Amino acid sequence: MERRIYWTLKKKVLLGYSLALLLIVTVILWSLVNLVRLGKAAEAILKENYKSILAAENMVDSIERQDSAILLLMLNYPEEAMQQFRENEAHFLLWLGRAQDNITIAGEEKIVEVIGTGYAQYVTEFAQLQAKVRSDAATAADFYHETVLRSFNAVRADCIRLREINQNTMFAASNKAGDVSARAFWSVFVIGSISVAVGLTFSLLLADLITKPVHRIAEATQKIAEGDYDVEVASASSDELGMLAKDFSIMVKKLKAYRALNVKQILNEKHKSEAILNSIDDGLIVLDSEFRVEEINPTAARIFGKTLREVKGRHLLDVVRDEKLYNYVKQAFESETVVRPEEADADILTVAKGSARQHFLFSVTPVVAGKEAVVSMVLVLRDITRLKELDRLKSEFVMAASHELKTPLTGMAMSIALLKEKAMSKLDAAESQLLAAADEEVQRLKALVEDLLDLSRIEAGKMALDFDSVPVELLLEKTVNVLKHQAEEKQVELSYSLPGDLPFICADVNKITWVLINLVSNGLRYTDPGGHVRLSAERMGSQVHIAVADDGAGIPYEYQSRIFNKFVQVKNEKAVGGSGLGLAICREIVRAHGGTIWVESQPDKGSTFTFAVPIAGEISH
Asked: Which of 186, 202, 218 is the last residue of a domain?
């Protein structure tokens, strides 16, 4: 049953368009037939007559030049006359032969035969004229006018007649081609007009057949969208459209029942979602695509000291007056990816409540509906105030412990140095070795304590930075000069390169130089003899990116995400003793300058450490 109904409308469409298609095919075939006929007519014009016309023209030209040669003979220029006559005789006979080979129309053969006979007589008379010219010039002139000239005119007239008969044939063929073209035009026009009329008529009928039920369905759909489910689409047709109307009416009835059934369920789900939002300890804000607050839980409202009613519907910047957080939300909206800033002071939201301060880590998650654009975003605020306080206490403890350790370590170092100076000669080999090991360990502990103190000062913001407008070349040159001797000992090439228009940067010369020396020292340590360590810099927006690249051992992938953490050291055969604080201090110094530092590396292919520092404001070369 379904298959029979399915083919009903399809047959209607195919029947109408098959007729129009048949007419179009007829027009195309008829046009092709006429084009072939026109082509044949044109080919006949060129093929049958053009060669004969060309032969006649050339024969006329040749015999006229021979007549000119006779005049030269009469004027007593025999050599020039004979040369010209014989050359044109050969030319005439050549084209006469082509005319004989291209006889295609009635009467043409007889004319060509007459031309050949007449021309032979003309040549014979020319030979007689030659003898008379040598014997008696007066008799020769009379012979020319009475005999030779008459033969010349006769042959020339026959050549012209050959040309005209072929020209007339060409004109007749051209007229025939014109008649074929006119008939083809009107036949194609009539058949094409009939095809257009039939196709247009059927298209109107088919459009009316299809659009009427579709319009009824569209009107019913609009009513359903407005909430009116008491609609029914009537159709008397038994084809697909009639079936669609009946199925649509059934669907409307089911939608009406489903709506009545699900209103309560939707309300229950809404209450459940609100309960989940309210039970979450972290602050949670749902934003629409215009960054307005759609939902907010009580925890988030308390963070900003507002009620739920005060916050809903307002722009994010009206609730959270933090430009950096707003930029992160914008970034998540534009990139359609989750944004989780680093756990650094610059990327933590701090909210002041009187004299107290609360610190929050945040993440922004875009919500995408199917393949559409972002429809909303979820902002989560996690309270890390206690963690920040613990971190502060830890830093203070490390600083205090380092200070306390510094004095006894200095005393131990002095005592060991005194022993090495005074008592080394009295000790045996084993005791000397133990004393040297103790001295080495004390020096390592002193370096560790100094690094811990430096790191603690930076984290606590107690390290003073002397900012100045500095040329990048000065920093790179200073670094290369300091480590040149070490690079030569390692047989590693150490160099730097800079673009000519690089601006000055705002930096503490000593601190940034310390960062560069630390990065270059690491590069030298992990690069084999014959390798390279290169320093470079380039401008990127309002910052300058300074890079230290080496072609050494590289950093294993499992270390790259935490290489800047405290006490992290790469474990390989090139690793040497150290505190593991160098890169952590580099990161803190760069952050204190308002920049960032990162690494790009592939194992066995080298590493590139890059850090960014701001350009000096309003200062240039």
From this structure: 202
65 and 193, same structural domain? Answer: yes
452 plus 369 within the same structural domain: no
Same domain membership, residue 185 and residue 94: yes
Distance from C-alpha of 430 to C-alpha of 421, rounded to nearest angstrom: 17
Task: List the CATH number of the domain containing 311.
Answer: 3.30.450.20
Q: How far is CA 100 from CA 96, 135, 156, in A?
A: 6, 38, 16
Please give the helix or strand (H or E) that residue 93 lies within, else none: helix 78-101
Closest CA to 498 of 545, 566, 555, 445: 545
Res 24 pLDDT > 50: yes
Q: Assign 3-class secondary structure to 358-384.
A: EEEEEEEEEEECCCCCEEEEEEEEEEC
- How many Cα atoms sit within 13 Å of 28 on the Cβ side? 6
Residue 84 shares a structural domain with residue 157: yes
Domain membership of residue 619 (yes or no) is no
Total residues found in the chain within this entry: 621
Q: What is the pLDDT of residues 180-223, one digit of tens each?
A: 777 777 777 777 777 777 777 777 776 666 676 677 777 777 77
Q: How far is it, in rounded angstroms, from Cα 282 to Cα 423?
A: 65
Q: pLDDT for 143-189, tens place per residue?
A: 888 888 888 888 888 888 888 888 888 777 777 777 777 777 777 77
H/E stretch holding 129 reads helix 108-135
List Cβ<8 Å contacts ≥24 apart for 344-351: 344/591, 345/591, 346/591, 348/384, 348/388, 349/320, 349/322, 349/325, 349/381, 351/303, 351/304
Highest mean pLDDT among 14-18, 409-413, 475-479: 475-479
User: What is the value of pTM for the model shown?
Assistant: 0.41
CA–CA gap between residue 93 and residue 82 (Å, rounded): 16
Residue 370, number of CB atoms within 10 A of its CB = 5
Which pLDDT value is given to residue 618? 43
| Structural domain contains residue 554 | yes
- 491 and 481 in one domain? yes
Lowest mean pLDDT segment, chosen from 296-310, 368-382, 535-549: 368-382
Q: How many domains does the chain have?
A: 5
Q: Which two tokens stand for residue 101?
A: 């080979």
| Greatest Cα-to-Cα distance within the chain, rounded to the nearest angstrom | 158
List Cα–Cα distances, 244 to 5, 217, 247, in angstroms: 11, 9, 5
The verdict on 121 and 15 lying in the same domain is yes
The enclosing domain of 550 has a CATH number of 3.30.565.10
Is residue 224 one of the residues assigned to a domain? no
Q: Of the segments 331-335, 469-473, 522-526, 601-605, which one has the largest average pLDDT value? A: 469-473
Same domain for 403 and 436? yes
The reply to whether 209 falls in a domain is no
Nearest to 493 by CA among 574, 555, 551: 551
Residues 296 and 151 in one domain: no
DSSP string, 191-223: HHHHHHHHHHHHHHHHHHHHHHHHHHHHHHHHH
Domain of residue 426 covers 390-459
CA–CA distance from 388 to each of 17, 163, 399, 556 (Å)?
78, 113, 16, 31
